Amino acid sequence: MKNRDIQALRGVAVLLVFLQHYRGRLPTPNWYFDIFNYAAFWGGVDIFFVVSGFVIAKSLIDRSDWGVRKRLSFISLKQFWYRRIRRLVPASWFWLFISSVLSIACVSITNGGMPSASITSAISAISATSNFYWSWCITGFHVGSSCINPDFNGIYWSLSLEEQFYIVFSLMAFSISSRIMATLGIVIFALFTILGLFYLDQAFSLIWVSRPHGMILGVFIACFYPKIISYIRKRSKINVILCTWCAIFLVCLVSARVELRLSIPTISVLSGFIVVLALRGDGISSGVFGSALQWIGDRSYSMYLCHLSVIILIREVGFRLNGVEFVNGNGWGLFIIFFLSSLVMTFLVSDISYRYIENMRLFSFSKRQPT
Predict the structure, then answer these.
(1) Phi/psi at 67 (5° precision)
(2) Rounded to a whole number, what is the distance in angstroms from the first to the last CA of the chain?
(3) Do the domain assignments include residue 367?
C-alpha cells in the first residue's frame, strides 16, 4: 500500500518544478521574477531524489529481497530491473519523442530546429547519459551550435542520474547487505559534499549533475525505517504537518539564497527530513488539499515528463497567433490566463499519460499497473 504522505510529497515536488520552469517561458509579471531573488523551486528535484532512493530501497526490503544480513540475489536483481524498465521506459520514451518533435517544429523557442542535435540529445536520454551531455552543452557553451535549447529534452538529466543510481545501487545491493550499504552511503555523501566545496561552482557542472546526496539519504532512511517510523508516530500530527511545510519553505529559500556548493547538501538534508516526516502517512496528505496533492503525486512522473512540452506548445500557439510580445508579456491578465491554462493542461495531459502510457494500458501484453 502506498504511503499517502509520500505521494503528496511527490505532488509538492513536481509543482515546485513547474513553478521553476514557468518563469520566462510564458507571460510572467515582474513580481514573479522578483520572487526568485528570495526563493527558487529547483529543489523540488532533490525532494524527488530522496523519495526515489527511499522507495526503491524500501521496496526491496519489503519484498525480503535485501536486508541487514541479506544480499540481493541474481533473480531479485533481474526482477528489480524488469520492474524499473517496465515502470519508467514507456512514458519516458513517449515524451522524449514528443519533445524531440517539438524541438524541430517550434519557432518560438531559440536554438531549436536542429534535427541532428535533437537526435543526439534523445540518444543521451535513452542511454542514461543525459546529465553528462547537458553538462557538456551548458558549461561548454555549446547550446545553439552543437546542442539544442535545453527546454527540449533537458529534463532528462535528472532521470539519467536516477537511472545511474539504480545501476550502482542494484549492483551494490547484489554485493553487500543493507547495513554495509548505509555506512558506505554516508561515506559517499561526505565525499561528494567535500568535492562540491571545491568544484561545485555552477549549475550543470559535472558535480552538479552527478549529485547522489538525496538518493543516498533516501536509501539510508529505508535501511533504518523501523526505528524512524516508531519515533515519528509518537510525534503529534499537527507538529509533523507544520515541520513539513516549514522544511519545504526552507528548501525554496536555500535554493535561492545559499551558495550552490553549500545549497546541494543542505537541500538534500532538508529533503531527507521532509521524507522522514512523511513516513507517518497522515500529515500533508490530510484533507481536500492533501487529497489533491496525492492525485498530483500519483501523476508526478508523467507531469515531470510532459510539463515543459505543454508549456512550449502553448507558447508556440500564442506566438503564431499574436507574436513574440504576446507570449513574453508581463501583464496580470495574460499571466493568469497562461499560468492557469498551462497548469490545467499539464494536469489533463499527465493524467492521460499516467492512465494509458505510464500504466501501460495501451499495450496488450500487460494491463496491470507497474509497482
Answers:
(1) -170, -165
(2) 10
(3) no
- Domain carrying residue 346: 4-358
pLDDT in tens, 270-326: 999 999 999 999 999 999 999 999 999 999 999 999 999 999 999 999 999 999 889
- What digits encode the pLDDT tens for the residues 165-201? 999 999 999 999 999 999 999 999 999 999 999 999 9
Question: pTM of the prediction?
Answer: 0.94
- 225 burial (CB, 10 Å; 0-12 / 13-18 / 19+) is middle
Q: Per the domain annotation, does 182 fall within a domain?
A: yes
Alpha helices in the chain (DSSP H): 4-22, 30-35, 44-62, 74-105, 115-126, 130-139, 156-175, 178-199, 213-223, 225-232, 237-257, 260-278, 287-298, 300-322, 324-327, 332-353
Q: Residue 298 is placed in which grid cell?
A: 500519483
Measured N-to-C along each axis, helices 237-257 and 260-278 cross at an angle, to the nearest 10 degrees, of: 160
- Residue among 343, 341, 336 nearest 307 (CA): 343
Q: Which of 10, 2, 13 is nearest to 252 (CA)?
A: 13
Task: Give how many domains the chain has, as a whole number.
Answer: 1
- The answer to whether the CB of 270 falls within 8 A of the CB of 13 is no
Q: Is residue 368 part of a domain?
A: no
Domain assignment present for residue 43? The answer is yes
Q: Any residues with CB less than 8 A from the CB of 119 and at least 6 apart, and which?
A: 100
Report CA-CA distances (Å) from 76 to 63, 197, 219, 220. Answer: 9, 38, 17, 20
Beta bridge mates, 143? 147
